[in-house]
Design goal:
56% of the residues lie in helices and 0% in strands. With 209 residues, it is an all-alpha fold. The radius of gyration is 19 Å and the shape is flat.
């Protein structure tokens, strides 16, 4: 981003990178936030940043930018600044990497996280449920502008193609039980895929699957 003329607050990026997934606790009784209620773990992580001691050497601007970027990693957050977008992209990890080695591996970690967070027995969290949840979540991220500039097309192109390929190879193969869900998700993915192509164009293909 800096090489292409962007302004980057490195301190804010480092702090948000360290704390954006700080250990979230539902019970804050024995913490410094015993009088606080947080809507999501991103708000909790942002509160930690906003209460960092002076020894960290951060200015109010650094803290404000780092906490805002942390809040932006919430699924329905609004990444606006370059710092926001860098942290959100780091948070969702390998979605734009190699389809089999990065994207699928990241999705398996995501599946395990859903099982733990929703307290679902793993045997009940079948491929159809997983595929549906994954596409819904990734579609939210696809609807956001996470590009750092016109020079940054490759990341977003790869992300869009990976989601499209994942949907094709999973959601539409779940049978009649999932037909309505698959149809709805397919329309969402294809709409986002098409709008992305119209906005940016693409010289990529998916023949390497």
């Amino acid at each position: 981003a800096e090489e292409n003329g962007g302004t980057v607050n490195r301190k804010a990026i480092i702090v948000a990178g360290l704390f954006h997934d700080a250990n979230y606790q539902l019970d804050h009784t024995n913490t410094e936030f015993s009088d606080r209620v947080f809507d999501n773990k991103e708000e909790y992580s942002a509160a930690i940043i906003e209460n960092l001691p002076d020894e960290f050497g951060l200015s109010p601007a650094d803290i404000g930018e780092a906490s805002q970027a942390t809040r932006a990693t919430y699924l329905y957050g609004d990444p606006v600044s370059t710092t926001d977008k860098i942290i959100v992209r780091a948070d969702i990890g390998n979605v734009s990497g190699d389809y089999k080695q990065s994207f699928i591996h990241k999705n398996e970690l995501f599946r395990q996280e859903q099982i733990r967070s929703q307290n679902i027995p793993e045997k009940l969290f079948d491929n159809a449920t997983f595929a549906a949840n994954t596409v819904k979540v990734l579609a939210v991220y696809l609807s956001k502008d996470l590009s750092l500039g016109d020079w940054d097309r490759e990341w977003s192109d790869s992300f869009v193609l990976n989601v499209y390929r994942f949907f094709k190879s999973n959601a539409i193969e779940q049978g009649s039980k999932e037909l309505d869900t698959a149809k709805g998700l397919g329309e969402t993915v294809l709409r986002l895929f098409s709008s992305h192509i119209l906005r940016f164009g693409s010289d990529k293909n998916e023949d390497s699957e």
